[in-house]
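I'll show a sample.
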Amino acid sequence: MTQPSTPSPDSAVQTPFVLRGGIVVSADTPPQPLDILCEHGKIAALMAPGTAVASHLAERRIDGLHVFPGLIDAHVHFGFGEKITEYSTETAHAALGGFSTILAFFLNNESYADVYDREQGYAQSRAYVDYGFHFSTASEPHLQELESYVHKYGVTSFKYFMNFKGEEGRYLGLDGTDDGYFYELLKTAAQIGGLTIVCHTENIEIVNRLRNAQLVEGINTLKQWEAVKPPITEAESCIRAMFMAEKLGATLYIPHMSSAMGMDEVRRWRTRYDRVFVETCPHYLTHTSDMDLGGMGKANPPFRSAADRESLWEALADGSVNVVASDHCPRKRATKDKSFWLASQGFPGTATILPVLLHEGYHKRGLSLQRICSLVSTNPAKIFNIDDRKGSVRVGGDADLTLVDLQKERVVNAAELGSYSDYSIYDGWSFKGWAVETILRGKTIMRDHKLVGPAGYGAYLRRDAHPANG
């Protein structure tokens, strides 16, 4: 199949324009007023406010708005909604939240050659935002074909589930593996070079023992669910993963960090091996295990204590956490509103990442805009090898811009967020600070919380392998 790439064909005919009056946010420097010239889908110039430009250029005033580089959600799942249309709904959901790029996981035993062609067939005419893929590795053919995935499809990140042993992964169609497989995956990735292994850290043997003991009593609360998967099950497997990555020279990315214990082990390990990156998710920054949500709050890892939540905010502020991503799963309420044993795990989340970081982080805890920019744009771009075009407002980069009103207050209503999912764990919450416009390669795709498209403008992001740096 023809390999799609960025930019898409119509980016070359974008009308040049100048944004005036915005305050540009960077990961490296304090926010500063700059005018931005966009041409042919790229940023052509960053200018002092009021700099004269050619008379034929269109000019827009965005006084008082902060201009972030286009936001990137590095942890999205497809396959939980309507298969044919989910590239429409979930990329629309992303655009409505200020995101111009998503990176999606696929969990398959089959060869990814078939998966890639199938998914591109769904995505190319439907995606509103740019998108890339992570492939999960669970079978011997995946190891044998790993290098071909890099060269043929531009995929440079591969997921491994430490908990999928025996029958544990069968509900997702993944074979059970073992530490020998994980060892070989890390070794192969290191030999190829420039790849990132995304590792779900969970000691399933401890979980199974605790879960079996709980079967008699049952699970009725989030605290009981957390007790089945306590922090040690996350932290211990982090240590094993980091140890093997260090010995084999591989780059490790730990998603959805939920606990202070796990975060402490990462900090300790980084003093001897720094090629370890950490992601947390917005729900671990807002929700705790003492909330009365029933199966609606079921996640893996589970919600934890208020102390764990605050430790993660500290890790965001001091740079220990590199990325905030959603772990977005577009499930319906009906799959969640059940007993704990039957409720599905995960929930939608891309569109509410930025309001969480601005309201709970910037306004309430003093988290800087520079750090927020790092967490949802610059760092994911660097770690996942798209920083040649994404992740910063710079001359020559894609004209991906997220315009943000820091003072805008809005109540979350899932019906306005565009997802196939029909609920949000933030329904009814009021947040201060929202994206009001999403610009992708010079084209506005969301304005004033309304999708303005067009569908199919989103392009596939092929990636070249080069060392990650978050």
Confidence is low (pLDDT under 50) at residues 1-12. The longest helix spans residues 231-248. DSSP finds 13 helices and 19 strands in the chain. The CA atoms of residues 331 and 435 lie 24 Å apart.
